[in-house]
Design goal:
The chain is mainly alpha-helical and 406 residues long. Helices cover 67% and strands 3% of the residues.
C-alpha cells in the first residue's frame, strides 16, 4: 500500500532533496552496515558462511551448492526479495521440524549465535575488509544515487532488516519522531497559553487569539453538545489534545519529505484506543463495573421470560458494536488521509507516464496534472482540519454515550 514518494508508509529514515545531501562513498567499506547487509554479494558471502555454521549444528543438511542455488531462486519471489539466508533456512520445508525442535533446546541459542557470527556486525566489518569481494564502480554509483538524500535514524534499541522493516528489538521510525515533535510543540504552546490564561489577561497577539478560537470551538461546539454542559468541560483537555494532535499529524503530511503519521493504521488505531479506554474507564467510574455493561442495553419494558432471552443477545450485539465503532473510527481517519495521497500520486503519474511514452500530448497533460495536484493539495488542507474535527466529535459522542443512561 505504500509509496516511498508520498510517504504513505512509515520508514526508518528521513529524506531531503538529493542535492542537499549527496552521497559519495568510494568503496563498500564506506557504506552503512544496513545497506551492506542488503547487497546481493554480501548475502551470497553471508550464505556460504551461514551454511558452514548450519552444517555444524545439523549434519543432515543438504549439499551446499544445491541449497545456495535454491536460496537464489527463492529470493526471486518479490515476497522474499532481500531476505537473508537464515530466513530461507527457517522457512525451508526440509528443516522446519529441526528449527521447531532446537528452538526449545540449547540449539536455539546456538543457531542465534551462528547467525550473528555469519551475518552480524562483526561479519559486516569482515566483509568490508575482504579484498576478494569488490563492488563494481557501477554498483557503487547506483548505491550512492539511491542513498543520496536519506538520513538514517539511529537504532540504539533494535536492529533493522531494511529501511522499512525491523529485524528485532524496539526500532525508532520516522512517524514516531514526528509524533514526539508534534506532542512537544503542543505541550510547549499550551503550557504558554495556560500561563497567560492564569494571569487573567485579555487575549493579545495572533497566536493567542487563534488558539482561543479553537479552544472555545471544541468546548462549545464539540464537548458540551456531545457530552453535556455538566460533564463536557471535564473532557475538554482530552478532546483538545486529540484534535490538535491529529491536526498536527495531518498537516505534517502537507510538508515535503515529512509525511503524515495518520497515514499509518498503527497511529490511528492507537488514537482510537485512547477514545475506547476513556469510554470504558469513565463509564465504569460512573455506573460501576456491572452497571457499565447493563447500561449498554437499551431500556425496554419486557416480560421477564422474554428479557432473560433477549437482553443477553442485545448486550452481546451492543458490545460488539462498541468495538466496531472504535475500529471504524481508526479506519475512517486512515482511509481519508491515505486517499488524498493516492489521488495525488495518480494525477502526477498521468504526466510521468505520458512523458515516459514520449507522447505528443505530454505538453497538455503535464500542466493539467500539476494544476490538478495543486487543487487536490488545497482540498487535502481542508480535509486535514475536517478529519481532526470528525474524529474529535465522534470521540466526544462515544464518551457522552458511555457516561449517560441509555
Amino acid at each position: 500500500m505504500a509509496s516511498a514518494i508520498l510517504h504513505i508508509k512509515d520508514s526508518y529514515y528521513f529524506e531531503v532533496p538529493k542535492g542537499l545531501l549527496p552521497r559519495h562513498y568510494a568503496s563498500k567499506a564506506d557504506f552503512p552496515a544496513l545497506w551492506v547487509q542488503l547487497d546481493p554479494q554480501f548475502q551470497a558471502w553471508e550464505a556460504e558462511r551461514l551454511y558452514d555454521e548450519f552444517a555444524k549444528l545439523n549434519p543432515n543438511v543438504g549439499p551446499k551448492d544445491g541449497l545456495l542455488q535454491e536460496y537464489e531462486v527463492w529470493k526471486h519471489d518479490h515476497v522474499n526479495e532481500g531476505k537473508p539466508f537464515d530466513k530461507f533456512l527457517e522457512q525451508h520445508q526440509s528443516y522446519g521440524d529441526w528449527f521447531a525442535t532446537t528452538a526449545k533446546l540449547s540449539g536455539g541459542a546456538q543457531w542465534e549465535a551462528a547467525k550473528e557470527r555469519a551475518g552480524g556486525d562483526e561479519a559486516v566489518k569482515a566483509f568490508k575488509k575482504d579484498a576478494t569481494v569488490q563492488w563494481s564502480p557501477e554498483t557503487i554509483h547506483a548505491y550512492n544515487k539511491h542513498l543520496s538524500g536519506k538520513i538514517l535514524i539511529p537504532q540504539p534499541f533494535g536492529e533493522l532488516r531494511n529501511f522499512y522493516e525491523k529485524e528485532s528489538g524496539f526500532a525508532i521510525s520516522r512517524f514516531m519522531i514526528i509524533e514526539v515533535v508534534i506532542a512537544l510543540v503542543l505541550w510547549m504552546v499550551f503550557a504558554w497559553l495556560g500561563r497567560q490564561v492564569e494571569g487573567g489577561d485579555r487575549p493579545r497577539g495572533r497566536l493567542w487569539n487563534l488558539l482561543e478560537v479553537f479552544v472555545v470551538f471544541v468546548r462549545d461546539q464539540v464537548a458540551r453538545p456531545a457530552i453535556g454542559s455538566h460533564d463536557g468541560d471535564r473532557f475538554v483537555p482530552l478532546l483538545l489534545t486529540i484534535f490538535f494532535f491529529i491536526l498536527g499529524c495531518n498537516l505534517s503530511g502537507m510538508l515535503p519529505w515529512v509525511g503524515a503519521p495518520t497515514g499509518s493504521w498503527g497511529v490511528t488505531f492507537g488514537l482510537a484506543c485512547v477514545t475506547f479506554s476513556t469510554v470504558i474507564v469513565c463509564g465504569m467510574q460512573r455506573f460501576g463495573f456491572v452497571g457499565f455493561f447493563l447500561n449498554q442495553i437499551p431500556g425496554m419494558d419486557l416480560p421477564l421470560a422474554i428479557a432473560v432471552v433477549l437482553k443477553p443477545m442485545i448486550l452481546a450485539i451492543e458490545l460488539l458494536g462498541l468495538l466496531i465503532k472504535h475500529l471504524v473510527l481508526s479506519i475512517r481517519l486512515l482511509a481519508n488521509m491515505v486517499a488524498g495521497h493516492i489521488v495525488l500520486l495518480a494525477i502526477m503519474m498521468m504526466a510521468f507516464s505520458v512523458q515516459g511514452a514520449a507522447s505528443e500530448y505530454w505538453g497538455v497533460v503535464a500542466p493539467i496534472s500539476v494544476i490538478g495536484a495543486t487543487l487536490i493539495s488545497c482540498l487535502e488542507l481542508f480535509v486535514a482540519f475536517l478529519q481532526a474535527y470528525i474524529f474529535t466529535f465522534l470521540s466526544a459522542l462515544f464518551i457522552g454515550a458511555a457516561i449517560h443512561h441509555h
